[in-house]
Amino acid sequence: MTTTPPDTTPDTTPSLAEVAEIIVSALNLEMSPAEIEPDASLFGEGLGLDSIDILEIALVISKRYGIQLRADSEDNTSIFSSLRSLTNYIASQKAA
Amino acid sequence: MSLSTQPLTDHPTPDSVVAWQPDGPVSRDRFLADVSHLAGLLPAGGHILNICQNRYHFLVGLGAAIVSGRVSLLPSTLTPEAITRLRSETPDLFCLHDGHPDAIALPGLAFPPPLPLTGRNLPVPEIPVDQVVAHVYTSGSTGIPLTHHKTWGALVTNALSEAERLGARGHALVGTVPPQHMYGFESTVLISLHGGAAAWSGRPFYPADITVALAAVPPPRALVTTPFHLRTLLDAGVEVPPMDFILSATAPLSEELAARAESTLGAPLHEIYGCTETGQLASRRSTATRAWHLLGEVRLSPAGDGHVASGGHVEGIVPINDVVELTDERHFLLHGRNADLVNIAGKRTSLAWLNQQLAGLPGVRDGVFFMPDEEPDDHVTRLCACVVAPDHTARSLLNALRTRIDPVFLPRPLIFTDTLPRNAASKLPRASLLALLPRKDKAGE
């Protein structure tokens, strides 16, 4: 089975791998980007990130993609619940 | 003997603005009505863990606790073990929350929806100055947790000293720090009760959220933040609404960041120095001087190997955990911290306590936490740990540690070895520990 490329412009939609690479390099994590599971929690018992990490990553993302992250509720960190949610958020902001 | 009191708030008129919400200002009358309403709903327990995320909800929860003679607990972390300890100290403890109970194992009360405001010119309750209104906690330099009692009179003096130094009266304050942390408690919550300021109800997180929050309150306004949040705000390159001052605490700010903040944001930057035991002690205008100027009537004096604080709002004579040098009666320089203490993102603990937690985990034969060299440029430096625990994986060990210590202290990296590099005296030389760290690829960054 062949994988179909996503139906969006490569310029605007980051891949999971690309965002995983940003997380690993922004935080100097001792792991390879491929080890971040797309749907696993980035917090707590998942990758163990906290709000300090999130602001560091948010800064790199804002520079790379030209978007400013916003907390849409009192839960500041829901965008970062998983690698996939973060990637989808970037894509939605790029499209907006 | 006369029983001395201080009002719940010194905001002078029923229409004075105590706080700001997205739908506008909160008047003193509105605040007092909300306090009275909530006080009537509180369960019987005399101790309250107020974990409200919304700063106005926290303020009302604090007010309701004070007027009903209850004590608000302000622990530095909410790990399961910390909650267990609080419960054993104060068995009647309950939790006030606003929709984020965070799996706290305590009886809970959700912050109630507001009632329509009916009364006018509500009386401001008078509170005895010797009433204990808060408990704050430190890990103690020996690793034994300590509880500190804060009286209403001391907290009022603390807030007034800070407000006077900053000229904060009449300012709207946007805080990026939580109301439960000592710095946020003093500089956004107490100063809105005594000191004439008015806190924004939210706690903006991302740089763009901070700009929106500042724009939502009228000038004069100020930003209450940390070196880390300030750096990310400046680095984000967003347009920040003008403000009248910036306040930073929890870690010393680099001179470079202080200068950049003042030139980019067009406002004076003040740093506050203090600790949980004493509250705020001093401030400085960081671009003008490295010397800290003591607040109000607070004094510092040499004692033994170090210094003690006393006077003003400081209750008793309290040893200072940092290395200070008095330059005159009212000023001092800060030369670093006691080597055993760590402070990460404003949370403080001791290596002795962390090592006890690590050694107490099943399957850990030996282990030690240590602090690597400081990261430059106002980045947050993380702890490292080295362990001998052959039956653990990194994940199983971190999960076990997470129930005991605040996540901000979790080690990065966590290094597994067969033995710790103890010397002949069974000590662990810092150089040997640092040698265990993986080399950074990006030297000089």
Automatic annotation (TrEMBL), chain A:
Every Carrier domain range: 13-94
Domain of life of the source: Bacteria
Pfam family, one: PP-binding
NCBIfam families the record matches: PRK09184.1
Name of this protein: Acyl carrier protein
